[in-house]
Amino acid sequence: MVVQHSPQVTExxxxxxxxxxxxxNKVDQAExxxxxxxxxxxFERAFREAxxxxxxxxxxxxxxxxxxxxxxxxxxxxxESLQVADKDRxxxxxxxxxxxxxxxxxKSIVVVPQQSRRDREISALQKEIxxxxxxxxxxxxxxxxxxxxxxxxxxICVFCGQAGxxxxxSCPVIVSGNLRQKVVEEAGRCSKCLxxxxxxxxxxxxxxxQVKKTIFKDExxxxxxxxxxxxxxxxxxxxxxRIDRKKEELEALKxxxxxxx
Length: 261
Hints:
Blueprint: H1 14-76, H2 78-99, H3 117-137, H4 177-187, H5 206-211, H6 236-255
Helix pairs in contact: 3-6
């Protein structure tokens, strides 16, 4: 029979105890560190998942809110969009005006109604008559009669022969210019100076110079002459007859029917 011997159990020494405690503490610390690291990793993973889901949820909420607010803003503030559109149109117009050249000025045309030939003739004839009447009213005339008291006593009238009574131009005996011209020619005097000069420089007749400024300038005779023999002051009757003929012509034209344009 074989007798088995059990191992001998002895109490651990203090040294062994402390060594064991030290080993156990190390094991516990390692396990706790391993456990804590596992916990921290798991916590961090859970935290990240929670944060990610929270961020995604917040982002989706923000997107939904923005989509909900945009139509509300358009509905609640239509005038702002209109103002922006008006500003854009104004800017585009200003740019277009800056780029386009300034408009050219167009001259205004006044349309005058066309007169008939008959109306034009009547207007022209009436204007001519008015000018004749004005000229005849201021037509020059001779001062016939005796002159002032201070007439030189040596002055002798060429036409009547009286001395110191009047100048030859005012002779009351021979008044007509044409008769005076005959007297001068028969006496052999110069018609320019009324003297026996045998021909002198031409002088301007005062009566003719006045008539040349009027519508009757075509009646002025040709050639130089002294005013004492000028026929113009004697022509008032002839000029009045000329005006009367123009008036008759005007009345006849008015009595006619309207003519073609």
